[in-house]
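Hi R.,

Here's the chain you asked about this morning:
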Amino acid sequence: MKFQSNRGIFLGIILFSITASTFGQFLVVPPKAEVIVPEVTGMMRAEAEKILTDLGLKVTTAEQEDPDFPDGTVLSQRPAAGKKAAAGDEVLILLSNPRASLRLRVKKRHPGYRSLT
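And the predicted structure, written out as tokens:
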């Protein structure tokens, strides 16, 4: 009696495995939604990140020394505005960092400048 009970469980597991693997072959994963990358150049970091993440895009940042723009201004982006991207794709935004550049500018303009460190 015990042998038949175990045999039924064993057959049930095999039947379930075959059904699950067969069904899995026909399971179709829908493609990611496609979006048009918006123009965020000239915006501040928080606003640009919100716009991009609301569209389902991932945001990566890098900084460039630029004294002509306030700290955190988006100087450029990749991919460019108007390009197509899939939800979950990465957008790189290059942010201004004027403080570091300002330090370098002072050293260049005053040859007698010496660091206090």
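Strands lie at 34-36, 58-64, 74-78, 84-86, 90-96.

Let me know if you need anything else.
M.
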